[in-house]
Amino acid sequence: MSVDSSQFHKLVVLGASTGGFDSISRIIPMFDHPFQSVIFVIQHMPEWMTASYIHRLKQTAKLPIHEIHDGEQIQSGNCYVLPGGCFLQFRKTGSVKLVRSEGDAQGILNINGSFESIIERYGGERIVGAILSGMGKDGAAALLKIRQQGGFTIAEDESTTAVFGMPREAIQLGAAMKVLPCDRIAEEIIKVLKK
């Protein structure tokens, strides 16, 4: 496992699908700039939607929001959005490697694979992970791995999800240490980051 500990002590990973943009857009504005960590947003969406998704997030975000680009070196203080239709991986040098999928037009189930790559790169004990609104079970298994490695994990409460499938799966798997409504997730993440 290659670990870059020079820039940030902990990092945040957010996984979302159907209805997830509403959750993400309520969480991200709660983080102040300058930000002493890194946020990865892995959202199921078609590739053509990425630019407009980021544009909408920027309207209310205090910290810089970027689309992740192939070959990029991750820098502290930023929120990185994975382009739709891609899996996130890392090269041995630590730079980003984007793997495009032949998935359907609605995007691919890329949360679990991308979370796994982040765990391998940085170590699960450094991660604060959250599974938000979405259909299916993508991300639950990797969230469990984060918990098992000593990280902190959250599932969005049914009361604020559009679709409870992904958070429910994470809860049933025992992956979530906390189950919280969307409006309390950022507060909990900030608390953990300060420890």
What's the arrangement of secondary structure elements?
Layout lengths: L10 E6 L3 H8 L11 E5 L6 H9 L6 E3 L11 E3 L4 E5 L5 E5 L10 H12 L4 E5 L8 H9 L3 E5 L8 H8 L5 E3 L1 H12 L2
Helix pairs in contact: 3-4, 4-5
Keyphrases for this structure?
globular; 195 residues; Rossmann fold; alpha/beta
Descriptive report:
This protein is of the alpha/beta class and 195 residues long. It has one domain (11-193): Rossmann fold (3-Layer(aba) Sandwich), CATH 3.40.50.180. It is 30% helix and 21% strand. Strand 7, helix 4 (140-148) and strand 8 (152-156) form a beta-alpha-beta unit. Helix 3 packs parallel to helix 4 and helix 4 packs parallel to helix 5. 44% of the residues are buried.
Summarize this entry quickly.
The protein has helices at 20-27, 50-58, 111-122, 140-148, 165-172, 182-193; strands at residues 11-16, 39-43, 65-67, 79-81, 86-90, 96-100, 127-131, 152-156, 178-180.
Mean pLDDT: 92
CATH superfamily: Methylesterase CheB, C-terminal domain
Radius of gyration: 15 Å
> What share of the residues does DSSP label as strand, in percent?
15-25%
The total of beta strands comes to 9
Low-confidence stretches: 1-5
